[in-house]
Write a structure and sequence with these properties.
The chain has 290 residues and is an alpha/beta fold. The chain has two domains: 149 residues, Rossmann fold, CATH 3.40.50; 97 residues, Zinc Finger, Delta Prime, domain 3 (Up-down Bundle), CATH 1.20.272. It contains 13 helices and five strands. The protein is elongated and about 65 Å long. The mean pLDDT is 90.
Amino acid sequence: MNSFYPWHGELLQRLTRLRDDSKLPNTLALTTPPGWGHRQLLRDVAGMLLQTPLPANETEFAHPDFRWIEPDGAEIKIAEIRRVTEFAVQTTQIAPRKVVAIYDAHLLNRAAANALLKTLEEPPPNTHLILATPFWSRLMPTVRSRAQRYSQRPDHAAARSWLEQQDVSVADVAYATAGYAPLNALEMAGTASLEKWLENLPRTDLAAALEQAQSAGVMQWLDQWYRRLLAHLSDAPIVGIQAEAAAVLGFADSLLSARRQIDTSNSANQRLLLEALIVRWVTLSRRTGA
């Protein structure tokens, strides 16, 4: 089976062989590091099981033997899992098997995860549930224990080669800021530069700074910012920041706290959280003579 990303190829071939030998478990957990394409891997594996490729917009894929589940905001709710339960007991119609694909399965809320357990414990015949997540440890232990895990390990040589094919040249510091992940690096190449944004923050209007970060995606921006702080603390200083390591680490903790709130709560105000971080960063810069 052809893979959308070259680093997925070996795992896809392995799963295809298991399918052909009728040895594929009913519940699979696909894990990748963040930024290595777990959504595309889920799409490819689901298409392999259905034996028909999924379109780019899988949420609108009308197939009687397939269900795609993803978070509603910051979580997957029990109503979605109840629909999965109803679907799982149906008979196949046109595909060789029924397939349920759960994207970002670590965002199953407790009620949804508990509701899913019954199906995981006694999966109906000819039915496969695929959970995809970059955060395996955040799945409930009872869910993890009932899924066979298949992990995609980073292949940096393949990733670098692929980025070159996309006409993206990534310096070492930029690749570190991207979390050593090709899709993050590709996304960074198509957005405003975090490096220039940080350098200009003390002289930039707050509204303009917010707009630039929001246009790039707040979660992605916060991820890049945090990783850039780690690089700053090692051997790649940020221009204008001479604060002691303790002050930078304290700011990094605040950044992680804001990111966690956005990631886990539908009520988190992204703009206000980002604004507070910007103001604190500018204060830190000015206090150190930046």
